[in-house]
Amino acid sequence: MIKTALVWFKTDLRIGDNETLVKAIAQSKEVIPVYCFDESHFETTEHGFKKTGSFRAQFLLESLQDLDVKLRELGSGLRIVQGKPEVEIPKLVQEYKVQKVFAKREVAFEEKQTEKKVELELFKLRCEFETVSTSTLYHAEDLPFSIKDIPDVFTNFRKKTEKDATIRNPFEAPTKINSPAIPAIDLPTLEALGVTKTTIDSRAVLPFKGGESQAIQRLQHYFYDTQCLSSYKETRNGMVGRDYSSKFSPWLALGCISPRFIYAEIKKYEKQFGANDSTYWLVFELLWRDFFRFMFKKYQTKFFLYEGIKSEKVNSKSLNEKLLSQWMNGTTPSDFINANMIELQLTGFMSNRGRQNVASYFCNELNMDWRVGAAYFEEQLIDYDVCSNWGNWAYLAGVGNDPRGHRYFNIEKQAMDYDKKKVFRNLWLKD
């Protein structure tokens, strides 16, 4: 048993099913929960967009506030620092004489680099560093293949995983945390983070608010209050309203709720209301999240390259500022694309159907470098998740995991199929 452990929270902003926290409590006499505002997350990328836009920054602040409240109920609290994690975390290790740091394990390139830098600095201080895999439905160790042998086609991955692997039970939330006195939470303002405050448009599918409490409330609403889960498969391609899909993605992206917790709730729901294609389909969608995360483990930096994980180049490297501006601002010749892009700009959210169409339009009709589109989504999306975003964009650009090669959406046909009466377009295109 060590005296003091530090838990470095990142995109696992929850108390429930958080193995990192559970391990730290089990192995130490006192725990210091910490969140570091990594200055690199608020920089402008090489594509000219901010890494974190207004909606996600606001959602992050709300999530941290909620986490602090939950930690204080257990006798602890959240210490906030700002700067480079490899500088700030070691400083706290020295301040509190920490013997071990626990953190969520990363898979994407930049996040891995930061993790390595922190580990190196902790090694110099003779402080242990343990990372724990907390983001997926299936644990990497339980997969029926090694990471390098994971099938590149989702269907093959899914079938074998469902047949040969089991999903672990979620961890119980701790009931008490021993901590030294943690000062009252001191969150930076949006301005201090270099982000302009924006209010979510009233037409938004949901007034998204960050935090584990809100995530559980949303699950309660979607599963038990409305039983919308039972018709999820039929409605999931919707575009208007709060309940056509689960809308869990912003909370999943910041780890305010875990896929395993959701899975356990689906199983409970099925016992109460019956299992059907729809209850399974939500698990199927969670598996897609896993798949992209494991693909990032397998291919590392390749998902950020123009040719993706393919060797032959299929899309264009060109960039036309005028066309890019029309796409971003919803002033293209296509009213269906415009409505989706205006929704994204004013709310930080877009339906799955919309995302596939605007990405296809960007890559195929405008024929521009897909990575610029992905980088714009990174700034705008309230539910940005590095693996899902870049994995999906590469997929639609024909340089990712799509077994059919270049996938092309007929935008007019899609608009007819999914917005026949123009309800969605009229909602977003009216002045």
On the 0-100 scale, what is the average pLDDT?
A: 95
Low-pLDDT sequence parts: none
Counted up, domains total: 3
Supply Rg.
22 Å
Q: What spatial form do the alpha-carbon principal axes imply?
A: globular
**What order do the SSEs take from the amino end to the carboxyl end, as H and E?**
EHEHEHEHEHHHHHHHHHHHHH
- In CATH, the homologous superfamily of the largest domain goes by the name HUPs
CATH class category label of the largest domain: Alpha Beta
By DSSP (H or I, 4+ residues per run), the number of helices equals: 17
- Secondary structure tally: strands: 5
Instruction: Just name the CATH architecture of the largest domain.
Output: 3-Layer(aba) Sandwich
The termini sit apart by: 63 Å
Helix content: 40-55%
Largest sheet, spatial ordering of strands: 3-2-1-4-5
Task: Kindly estimate the percentage of residues that lie in beta strands according to DSSP.
Answer: 5-15%
- Largest sheet report: 5 strands, parallel
CATH topology of the largest domain: Rossmann fold
Give the class from helix and strand content and strand pairing.
alpha/beta
Organism: Flavobacterium keumense
Cofactor: (6R)-5,10-methylene-5,6,7,8-tetrahydrofolate; FAD
Family: Belongs to the DNA photolyase class-1 family.
Function: May have a photoreceptor function.
Walk me through the structure.
With 431 residues, the protein is an alpha/beta fold. It has 3 domains: 2-134, Rossmann fold, CATH 3.40.50.620; 212-300, Serine Threonine Protein Phosphatase 5, Tetratricopeptide repeat, CATH 1.25.40.80; 305-429, DNA Cyclobutane Dipyrimidine Photolyase, subunit A, domain 3. It is built from 17 helices and 5 strands. The chain has helices spanning 19-27, 54-73, 85-96, 109-124, 154-164, 212-225, 232-235, 249-253, 259-273, 277-299, 321-329, 335-347, 352-365, 370-380, 386-397, 411-418, 423-429; strands at residues 2-9, 28-38, 79-83, 100-104, 128-132. Strands 3-2-1-4-5 form a 5-stranded parallel beta sheet. α13 (352-365) crosses α15 (386-397). May have a photoreceptor function. Residues 3-137 form the Photolyase/cryptochrome alpha/beta domain. Pfam families: DNA_photolyase, FAD_binding_7. InterPro entries: Cry_DASH, Crypto/Photolyase_FAD-like_sf, Crypto/Photolyase_N_sf, Cryptochr/Photolyase_FAD-bd, Cryptochrome/DNA_photolyase_1, DNA_photolyase_N, Rossmann-like_a/b/a_fold. This is Cryptochrome DASH.
